[in-house]
């Protein structure tokens, strides 16, 4: 499953080779980041498309099908991340540092399953508020 941004920016428009998002989480704050490898000729269009997609999700939410696919993808990635001892160790340390406690695997899976479309809409209204956007552009532009 590729993201809406990947589909729009790379597949439909051919404006970038690499497009992905990632989260940095802490107990009471965090960061949603978007990475795009693009050209100096296309970066303004890419930024515009990112803002448009975030606005669309904020205003219209996502479909039940998208939510199910996202849950499946997240849970699969989570499960595969537990295959090595070092990954398990890193997960335990990370959850302890972030939340001050160890969170069981069953609790993580339960929390993933509990996410609703309403939860996504609420998160989007907060995360996709343009007054909190910042950008870093690296390269000869």
UniProtKB/TrEMBL annotation:
Belongs to the peptidase M16 family. Pfam families: Peptidase_M16_C (PF05193). This is Peptidase M16 C-terminal domain-containing protein. Residues 1-73 form the Peptidase M16 C-terminal domain. Transmembrane segments: none annotated. SUPFAM superfamilies: LuxS/MPP-like metallohydrolase (SSF63411). It comes from Fusobacterium animalis D11. GO terms for molecular function: metal ion binding.
């Amino acid at each position: 499953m590729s993201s809406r941004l990947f589909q729009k920016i790379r597949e439909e428009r051919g404006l970038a080779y690499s497009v992905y998002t990632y989260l940095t989480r802490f107990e009471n704050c965090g960061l949603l980041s978007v990475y795009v490898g693009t050209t100096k000729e296309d970066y303004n269009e890419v930024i515009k498309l990112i803002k448009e997609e975030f606005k669309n999700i904020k205003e219209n939410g996502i479909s039940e099908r998208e939510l199910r696919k996202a849950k499946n993808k997240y849970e699969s990635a989570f499960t595969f991340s537990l295959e090595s001892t070092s990954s398990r160790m890193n997960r335990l340390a990370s959850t302890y540092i972030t939340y001050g406690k160890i969170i069981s695997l069953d609790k993580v899976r339960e929390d993933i399953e509990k996410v609703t479309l309403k939860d996504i809409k609420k998160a989007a209204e907060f995360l996709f508020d343009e007054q909190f956007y910042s950008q870093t552009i690296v390269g000869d532009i």
